[in-house]
Amino acid sequence: MGRKTIWSWPHIKGLLESGDFYCDMSLASGPRSLYRRITRHPYFRALLHFVTVSPENARHVLSYARDLAGSITGSARSEKDIALCSCVVVLSQTAIPGVDGLLRYLRTTSALALRLPSAVASICWDTSASTTQVRVVLSSEPQQGYAVLKGDQPRLQRNDFYSIFRDPGTPDLGLAAG
Amino acid sequence: MLGAARELEREIPSHQNPVVVAGQTGMLPVLAPGTFLGQASERYATVQGRVCVGMSFSPVIQTRMGREIMIDVLPEEPAHVQEKYHRRYCREFPENTLRRGPTCAYNCFALAFACRRGWVAAESVDTILEDDGYRPLALGEEALPGDVVIYRDGDTDEFEHVGVILEMRSLSPGSKPFPYVVSKWGYGPEYLHMAARSPYGTDFTVYTERPRGQ
Fold first, then answer.
1. Which residues of B touch A (CB under 8 A)?
2. Is A126 on the interface with B (CB under 8 A)?
3. Domain ranges of chain B
4. Is A98's pLDDT higher than 50?
5. What does pTM read for this prediction?
6. Which residues, listed in sequence order, are joined to residue B193 by a DSSP beta bridge?
């Protein structure tokens, strides 16, 4: 069966940095509320799906998150810190090397512009420490490069997000039907 | 605020010696280099090579019973981002009245419980309600201006949002009045709106700190 990467990284990145996503998240009354809103947002689920499709995708996200963590400076916020928060949440649910380092850095940083990602990283740290059930196992066997959630069914199944966020031009694999 | 800051001033150890610059919220006084912000959070950042104590002036706020409330201060947003809020919320809730534009200086809980001073953590709201004598309205009891409407997350039951009732307003003559509130929407603007006309849904509870029977 010809499974393919459904979304391109630029498309996912565009969603995460979009003004719509930022405004949706802006309703949060604090870091914990932000965490909840992120995990329920369709864009986040698109990101989660993207990450679980292949370890390479997860590494893309980790690299992007690291770049953001290093580049967000100053004393003002922007769309990028919400994008970083989302990446942190999704990465905290994966088992790829380097995530713990990112989380540790964010939790301990005193950079003002990283105040929210730092708080979200702390929540993720606590959450992932207590709920191993949702950790993503990334392996090349036997899922042929696809990631699965531990104790869960493989993620590439029929879902609502496929039809919503499929890249224009990507052939419909029939996953959204039904 | 400036007076309070001066009261808290004391010499900072020479090895720290930060150059204090004002933050962007307008909350921070500009202090002379070498001053210490007392109870302020010691969260420093480096901006253009200078050590900045920007927006770390977290006031200490206590409940009536003397328990400390968790207050945080978040960085402000640039103006181009702030415009997005107003455009969007004006489109989604055109009947609401904008009271003030977006700011990260405080959140909805701070508006209701802490005079708009910083971000009150949702985790502190239980403490505030308990210590300050808030209670849900009893059956048949009418809400009054000054009471608050509290929205909880449907799944986790955690506090999500709060608004302060300005008046009880009927949508049509003779109909049941509903709370008309002022509330701040996350990092966004402050709006005057019917309690059910916000992105936080229609499931809310009215709390009051009035003693029963008054």
1. 23-24, 43-45, 47, 52, 54-56, 72, 74-78, 81, 84-85, 88, 102, 104, 107-109, 119, 121-123, 153, 155-156, 158-161, 185-188, 199-200
2. no
3. 1-57, 74-208
4. yes
5. 0.72
6. B181
